[in-house]
Amino acid sequence: MIDTTAESAHADELRARLADALVADNTIVSTEVEAAFRTVPRHLFAPGSTLEQAYDIDGVVAKKRNEHGVTVSSVSAPRIQALMLEQAQLRPGMRVLEIGSGGYNAALMAQIVGPAGAVTTIDIDPDVTARASRCLALAGYSQVNVELTDGEDGHAPDGPYDRILVTVGAWDIPPAWLDQLAEGGTITVPLRMRGLTRSVTLARDSGHLVAQSARVCGFVAMRGAGEHPERLLLLRGDEIGLRFDDGPPADPEPLNGALDTARAQAWTGVTVGRMEPFDSLYLWLATALDGFCLLSVDPALDTGLVEPQYRRACPAAVEGGNVAYLALRHQDENASEFGAHGYGPDGAGLAEAIAEQIRVWDRDHRDGLEPRLAVYPAGTPDDQMPAGRVIDKRHSRVCISWATPDIPAADQAVPHHPEAKE
């Protein structure tokens, strides 16, 4: 399908190196995805970028920014694209819908499903669909159907689909996606839950959806009817803010001046290695803490007043006039200790509450099973929901449940935490 004579030897070499690297780190595990990455010329979908930038394993090629300089369309990093394709388990002959277009990912999918399959890619932005059409034709994948429409609505004329892949950050699962999903089909979507995004592959199970896999990822946010911006509560001018995915406190006034109080510290004795991942801690804190949010510090205005574990988006919690966040202190060059910093009249108590949940995570969930993610229709009664943290959205109720070690799942009594609906 590809006229390789028009490609430079350097592009061929870089494409092979990229595929080799993705196979070596086990991001690519199937022959179908490997073959697609070795075949599709990514650089043709990244005009204006160097070949090195186009084939950077973690490189994101920004294609369009809004008036504030925020990226609203991009060619995602190859590592993320490979991860999602492996999650989706595309096979020859499948019908696939991609929500959020760019061209390259649609070409990879077209390469996998082959001439017996079909790929439709949709986007709300005419600039994006026009560019995707041009790039797909240039790369030899003009059979991909490119449609200009709101991703919230899917694209019924080409359905039903064996696979739906959403390549923009989604806050909810709209009914149209389920209506257009074929029997036995799956949806792979970067789903935002309490501010944290996981790429999840969802399959039907007795009237609801259950995640078959969940991986950390990041995507530009969905626009249109499915858009759901976070709410920002500023604590110290524009320097320090709290980001709430499910709405800020009903009365944020008590938090005024919280950062003027003395900092309380609570350390846990729980350590982490320098290169050791701990993304499950974030999700556990989001599940366990009622006032969960993300603390962000503007790097250009940072005075060092707060020292969160991650300045861009650090797990935090609010309770009344108190705020506390995840902290980390270095022990030596190889290990650091988790803890929490708290501010407000009972900042020490809230910091200790976070510290205790870090200990629970370390004891029960650090090396255990991943949490169970399930999506139920909006309006499902509480008594029909599983135990766990329930996050209410416009179209659905998402439940995050964690297994407790050494206790049969049927005998577990996990607290039920409903969230206030937006």
Describe the structure.
- The protein is α+β, with helices and mostly antiparallel strands and 422 residues long.
- It has three domains: 4-226, Rossmann fold (3-Layer(aba) Sandwich); 231-365; 372-418, no CATH class.
- Helices cover 23% and strands 32% of the residues.
- It contains nine helices and 20 strands.
- It has helices spanning 9-24, 31-39, 51-54, 78-88, 104-113, 126-139, 175-179, 279-288, 347-365; strands spanning 61-65, 71-75, 95-99, 118-123, 145-148, 161-166, 181-193, 196-205, 208-216, 231-236, 240-244, 264-273, 292-297, 314-319, 322-332, 335-343, 372-377, 389-392, 396-401, 417-418.
- A hairpin with a 5-residue loop joins strand 1 and strand 2 (71-75).
- It starts with 8 loop residues before the first helix and ends with a strand.
Q: What is the H/E order?
A: HHHEEHEHEHEEHEEEEEEHEEEEHEEEE
The fraction of residues in strands falls at 25-35%
Report how far apart the termini are.
48 Å
Q: Extract low-pLDDT stretches.
A: 1-6, 68-73, 408-422
Write out the strand line-up for the largest beta sheet, numbering strands in chain order.
5-4-3-6-7-8-9-17-19-18-20
Number of domains: 3
Total strands: the figure is: 20
CA radius of gyration: 23 Å
CATH topology term of the largest domain: Rossmann fold
Mean pLDDT: 91
Portion of residues within helices: 10-25%
Number of helices: 9
Give the overall silhouette. Answer: globular
Largest sheet: 11 strands, mixed
CATH superfamily of the largest domain: Vaccinia Virus protein VP39
CATH architecture of the largest domain: 3-Layer(aba) Sandwich
By secondary-structure content and strand pairing, the structural class works out as: alpha+beta
